[in-house]
Amino acid sequence: MAGRPEPILVVEDIHTAYGLSRVLFGVSLGVAPGECVCLLGRNGVGKTTTMRSIMGLTPPTSGRVAWKGHDITREAPFRAAGLGIGFVPEDRRIFSDLTVWENLDVAERRTRPGGFTTERVFELFPALRQLRDRPGGFLSGGEQQMLTIARTLMGNPELLLLDEPSEGLAPLVVDHLQAQIGRLKAEGLTILLAEQNVDFSLALADRVYVLEKGHIRYEGSSREFRENAAIRQQYLAL
Ligand SMILES: Nc1ncnc2c1ncn2[C@@H]1O[C@H](COP(=O)(O)OP(=O)(O)O)[C@@H](O)[C@H]1O
Ligand SMILES: [Mg+2]
Hints:
Layout: E1 9-18, E2 21-31, E3 36-40, H1 47-55, E4 62-67, E5 70-71, H2 77-82, E6 85-88, H3 100-105, H4 118-124, H5 126-130, H6 141-153, E7 159-163, H7 171-186, E8 190-195, H8 198-204, E9 207-212, E10 215-221, H9 222-227, H10 229-236
Parallel strand pairs: 3-8, 3-9, 6-7, 7-8
Antiparallel strand pairs: 1-2, 1-4, 4-5, 9-10
The structure holds adenosine-5'-diphosphate (ADP) and magnesium ion.
């Protein structure tokens, strides 16, 4: 499209399977620098698998993943991370015996000047500063989600893959998380969000892809999607 910036992440016709069980059937998407793109879909449609394919955790059997023009399709996950892709998995993997500060400190990677430090992360997530000496295991679900995102930021990603961050959180907590992610977007981070929560996604996303049974069924701006009741009903049962 004329005027749209070149995507920094390109996923091209990927097919991904777990053993003989095929999950993705030709998924293509793109994310431009500074964009927040949401991959929407019901449970089990392949959102997590798409993210695992991008990270190299479950490499696609065919198709291509390119990051900043480099083919990373069959690169190891640590390579994708090293190249600036941060993955926040849905099962908030924090160290429950380490304090908030320790969880962040062990994740720090001094890869470039001006990168994230615990201090900068505490500025972005003031609630975490209050909790800095509390063990991860004693945080609420919302606090753990914040810590998981904050810890990923310590690796200095340019692109953040957020897998269902709102899942299992109370509505007020979801609102707070939405504001926090909005701040990351304002900081210039590029975000690919996988979600089932449509309101949460539309508050953050510039563009939306709808995934169903491993196929992309819809692609459009958040505004177009908001106005398209038929698509929401057909693929998200709203
Ligand atoms: N490790 C796995 N082994 C086998 N099948 C899996 C595995 N992980 C997910 N699947 C299957 O792949 C499909 C898509 O899963 P997933 O990508 O997790 O969907 P979503 O994130 O949209 O809920 C589901 O049918 C799920 O059962
Ligand atoms: Mg998932």
